[in-house]
């Protein structure tokens, strides 16, 4: 059967049809992305608007929750800073998170390197065992850990969180870094040792820079988990001056059946914005750390 030649008019029509399909597909992708972003950002937008709403606006079920039906007011945000210890809570969360991140890296990096590089027969089972520790629910551990906290004299102290939180962050960080370190070629390390560096020097000078995305993933994971943890903090710390945000804010803004709702939402926004900003600065490295660690692990 002979193939009919395509005329110039038919070729132009095919090009227009392809262009329309291409444009429609791109528009559909961007619309889907915008809708997904709005859906994910919906709770944050609602919290930011609610923080500046008047009580009469908030408590009327006929009002639109995403607009100001009455004039906005900063009174509830001001109340958060003047009548609660929010700044103290935020400071406690910050320095505890930084210390937990440092402790996590101090223990997780050498452990992950040993399990990933030394090729011992027990490396695989031990790595799995370390990861299984992370899967134990905190609700089963806080009673026994409370005995440890009391035994070392850290009850009702912020330092109890510095002691306990690494038991959560180190196991999963070791597992994550094991997978990422296996993705670093051994030749890089061996070349550094040939050049005169010790194994520790080769690790610090050659392996750690290449493992930086995985380290960023561990830093983000450890800090966000520390900032959001609730059960251990509730069990170990009761003085308001020692509390982090996760327990201090609800303790001072929920009094019986009275909820200071707008101030609660203001605290949510003020805590979420810095974490989200730092997270987005390292988003590419964070994703690289998690994906490479998961694929190569």
From TrEMBL:
User: Which GO BP terms sit in this record?
Assistant: transmembrane transport
What residue ranges are annotated as transmembrane?
23-49, 94-116, 128-150, 162-181, 202-225, 259-283
Q: Which PANTHER family match?
A: INNER MEMBRANE ABC TRANSPORTER PERMEASE PROTEIN YCJP, MALTOSE TRANSPORT SYSTEM PERMEASE-RELATED
- List the protein's name: Sugar ABC transporter permease
Enumerate the subcellular locations listed in this protein's record, separating them with semicolons: Cell membrane
Q: What GO terms fall under cellular component here?
A: plasma membrane
Query: Domain ABC transmembrane type-1: where?
Result: 90-282
Membrane topology category: Multi-pass membrane protein
The alphabetical list of record keywords is: Cell membrane, Membrane, Transmembrane, Transmembrane helix, Transport
Presence of keyword Cell cycle:
no
């Amino acid at each position: 059967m002979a193939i009919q030649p395509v005329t110039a008019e038919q070729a132009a029509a095919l090009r227009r049809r392809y262009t329309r399909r291409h444009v429609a597909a791109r528009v559909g992708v961007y619309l889907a992305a915008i809708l997904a972003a709005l859906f994910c950002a919906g709770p944050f937008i609602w919290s930011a608007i609610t923080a500046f709403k008047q009580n009469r606006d908030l408590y009327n079920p006929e009002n639109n929750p995403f607009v100001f039906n009455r004039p906005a007011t900063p009174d509830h945000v001001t109340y958060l800073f003047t009548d609660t210890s929010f700044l103290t809570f935020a400071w406690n969360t910050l320095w505890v998170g930084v210390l937990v991140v440092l402790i996590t890296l101090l223990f997780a990096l050498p452990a992950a390197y040993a399990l990933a590089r030394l090729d011992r027969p027990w490396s695989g089972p031990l790595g799995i065992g370390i990861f299984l520790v992370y899967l134990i629910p905190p609700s089963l551990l806080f009673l026994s850990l409370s005995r440890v906290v009391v035994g070392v004299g850290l009850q009702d102290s912020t330092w109890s969180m510095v002691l306990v939180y690494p038991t959560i962050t180190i196991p999963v960080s070791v597992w994550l870094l094991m997978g990422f370190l296996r993705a670093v070629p051994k030749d890089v390390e061996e070349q550094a040792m040939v050049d005169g560096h010790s194994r520790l020097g080769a690790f610090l000078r050659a392996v750690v820079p290449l493992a930086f995305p995985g380290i960023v993933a561990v830093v983000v994971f450890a800090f966000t988990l520390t900032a959001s943890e609730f059960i251990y903090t509730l069990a170990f710390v009761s003085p308001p001056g020692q509390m982090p945000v996760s327990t201090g804010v609800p303790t001072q803004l929920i009094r019986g059946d009275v909820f200071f709702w707008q101030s609660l939402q203001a605290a949510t926004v003020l805590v979420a914005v810095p974490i989200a900003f730092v997270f987005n600065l390292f988003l590419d490295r964070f994703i690289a750390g998690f994906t490479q660690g998961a694929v190569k692990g």
